[in-house]
Automatic annotation (TrEMBL):
One of its GO terms (biological process) is purine nucleoside catabolic process. Residues 4-307 form the Inosine/uridine-preferring nucleoside hydrolase domain. It comes from Amycolatopsis alkalitolerans. Keywords: Glycosidase, Hydrolase. GO terms for molecular function: purine nucleosidase activity. InterPro entries: Inosine/uridine_hydrolase_dom, IUNH, Ribo_hydro-like. It comes from the Bacteria. This is Nucleoside hydrolase. GO terms for cellular component: cytosol. Pfam families: IU_nuc_hydro (PF01156). SUPFAM superfamilies: Nucleoside hydrolase.
Length: 314
């Protein structure tokens, strides 16, 4: 099985994504690190522990990372979508964690796991990229141990937090720019354009709930999340953004990717936190711009939506 580390801010869709990896036989989940994001760090950390407890995976080490962005404060959280506790106000329904977090914090855990790994590891960041930016800046030697970074974030033709910015990137644009543009590590970006195409409906959730106690517990976290997505989708469904990215981390190739030049907007204009994916036809790129090869990422643009839904259902 390939080896995976998840960096996360649970988050309803994060809870689904963590469970998918924790229960998968195709992947060895080495560790989970937490970051501020949807809700403050103390909540995201507790939620990560609870979700792993639910999955019977208290053996997976958890460590807490950044409580705030690298430079500028996060302007808003997402408690209105994920609930003030991060799990629709229903986190207390999950089992209490029977163990504590690792001492020393997320960066120490990441460095230790990567140094010890026999083969390169996949990292799946599904929250703001602050921990990953700190890791790469302070411990560049671990880059050789990273197979690829498969992240949920950004948008090609849409935003969700502003007209053009997606929440994870917008929460710490400077960190995102470091990871996606400056560090030259192989990245697969799973943007909103694709995650919205993979929205699941009430029937899918009912099947999940009927599948067993873990599915039922995950489904029980969704009522408020459903209500918030009903407004944006216009029908009864939810978008499990982070599970789409973690599916690709578990099963490489389940998403179809295209390689494009990328920039991240860090100025304080209306585009702050946007990903600029250069999907122009190759002949139109680069003309009139400065010399030098641009940074590129693989952007997940498409998938077999029904097949992915079945995969996540397990
Ligand atoms: C991303 O933002 C968070 O609210 C979700 O958990 C996901 O990681 C979607 O924009
Ligand atoms: Ca998330």
């Amino acid at each position: 099985a390939s080896q995976l580390i998840i960096d996360t801010d649970p988050g309803v869709d994060d809870a689904f994504a963590i469970s998918l990896a924790a229960l998968s036989e195709d992947v060895d989940l080495l560790g989970v690190t937490t970051v501020f994001g949807n809700v403050p760090l103390e909540h995201t950390t507790r939620n990560a522990l609870r979700v792993l407890q639910l999955c019977g995976r208290a053996d997976v080490p958890v460590a807490a990372g950044a409580a705030r962005p690298l430079i500028h404060p996060q302007a808003a959280r997402a408690g209105h979508i994920h609930g003030e506790d991060g799990l629709s106000g229903r986190s207390a329904a999950l089992p209490e964690p029977e163990r504590d977090i690792e001492p020393g914090g997320a960066i120490k855990l990441l460095v230790g796991l990567l140094e010890e790994a026999g083969e390169p590891v996949t990292i799946a960041p599904i929250g703001p990229l602050t921990n990953i930016a700190l890791l790469l800046a302070a411990h560049p030697h671990v880059k050789a141990k990273i197979d690829r970074i498969v992240l949920m974030g950004g948008g090609v033709n849409r935003g969700n937090t502003t007209a053009t910015a997606e929440f994870n990137i917008w929460s710490d644009p400077e960190a995102a720019r470091r990871v996606l543009v400056e560090e030259n590590v192989p990245c697969v970006m799973v943007p909103l354009d694709l995650t919205y195409k993979c929205a699941v409906d009430a029937e899918w959730l009912a099947k999940l709930a009927a599948g067993g106690p873990i599915g039922a517990a995950l489904n029980a976290l969704t009522p408020d999340y459903l209500a918030s997505y009903r407004r944006s989708l216009g029908w009864d469904g939810i978008v499990l953004h982070d599970a789409v990215a973690v599916a690709e981390a578990i099963r490489p190739g389940i998403l179809r990717t295209e390689t494009y030049p990328i920039e991240v907007e860090t100025s304080f204009g209306p585009g702050r936190g946007s990903t600029l994916v250069d999907s122009r036809l190759p002949g139109l790129r680069g003309e009139g711009e400065g010399a030098g090869a641009p940074s590129t990422v693989q952007v997940a643009m498409d998938t077999d939506v029904d097949g992915l839904g079945e995969f996540v259902l397990g």
